[in-house]
């Protein structure tokens, strides 16, 4: 167990021993704003920084477009028609899936709608879908609209689970109890892998077991999980999942999404789905026949032509993860970074800042959600001050600052400097 110290020399010592320190150079981190001396990029939970190779890979496709035109779909290594195939294996390693269970396509909420068409199939006796009460708004909106599309009323069919006693964190017993409460009337469970507001890692295995025990399908929104914490989707028997790639996977703003469908479903032709030309096998696609011949894989959900430029950016980031040994290898550093940050906050800012994120390292990823506690501190002014000093982070009402030290590109020295900047901002923004 690490013996922590508030001495800045400890941060230097931790950085000197960091086996992943060289990976920072493989990202282009934003410069500090005018008036600040250094930037600290702690907002990879919202948008990851640009991998240096993304520029090279995107420019390569632009050059091929200029030189080959339409022939670029089939000429080159790979051509655009097959570009997605080089992304599947590294994504499978990242999410714990088999190659025929993963496809690359669209964006997260579009994919969520596509998957709910297949896995939310309400009937009069079983029509409810369970989400968290404080779900990310796009998930809530998607679920409401799917319920209405099936002719049901969200007032009856949308049920929620919330933390107990007005708190922020979920207890696994409460999630299981909520699933069991709705039992035979529950069609689908849709919960996050990591809760976006608090950064809590959710108990996926227990959620799946509870959902399946009552006959419901179980889907997981992995927006804040992929690239952040290890995942075992296949072994966990999750029915379906989707994720964005622009947060911890650093794939460009609005970067291309991925989907996972468990192998027991991928070749089930009885499942309804929104089909398109690109879900048709390549061997028969260009016969131009109006008879759908689906891939016996998750690719059958891919209705449209892949987008080469976003896939090129994703390729650049996935290479960095693989070279680092993957999320599992990075996890030890991530736990150490958040433990160090929590220690410094306890020692230097106790009484002013509280972490809403669990103390248990197994229940947190890179993100810590920091609540400014006293009423005599203007939390928004504190956020504005540290942002002006070069800290990239984000603000969530009413008084929470989310920071996400990330093992691929953040240092322990940055964590130490961040706490000093936060302390100075708090001292300067007390209202009385």
Description:
- This protein is of the alpha/beta class.
- It folds into 2 domains: 8-30 and 326-428, Alpha-Beta Complex (Aspartate Aminotransferase, domain 1), CATH 3.90.1150.10; 57-322, Type I PLP-dependent aspartate aminotransferase-like (Major domain) (Aspartate Aminotransferase, domain 2, 3-Layer(aba) Sandwich).
- Helix content is 38%, strand content 13%.
- It contains 15 helices and 15 strands.
- The protein has helices at 8-16, 52-68, 85-95, 108-119, 137-149, 154-157, 172-182, 204-213, 233-236, 263-266, 282-285, 308-323, 326-349, 379-388, 412-428, and strands spanning 27-28, 40-41, 50-51, 102-104, 128-132, 158-161, 186-192, 217-221, 240-243, 258-261, 353-355, 368-372, 391-392, 394-396, 400-403.
- It has a 7-stranded mixed beta sheet, sandwiched between helices. A 4-stranded antiparallel beta sheet has the order 11-12-15-14, with helices on one face. The protein has a two-stranded antiparallel ribbon with strand order 1-3.
- The two termini are 40 Å apart.
- The model has no long low-confidence stretch (mean pLDDT 96).
Write the layout of secondary structure elements.
Layout: H1 8-16, E1 27-28, E2 40-41, E3 50-51, H2 52-68, H3 85-95, E4 102-104, H4 108-119, E5 128-132, H5 137-149, H6 154-157, E6 158-161, H7 172-182, E7 186-192, H8 204-213, E8 217-221, H9 233-236, E9 240-243, E10 258-261, H10 263-266, H11 282-285, H12 308-323, H13 326-349, E11 353-355, E12 368-372, H14 379-388, E13 391-392, E14 394-396, E15 400-403, H15 412-428
Parallel strand pairs: 2-13, 5-6, 5-7, 7-8, 8-9
Antiparallel strand pairs: 1-3, 4-10, 9-10, 11-12, 12-15, 14-15
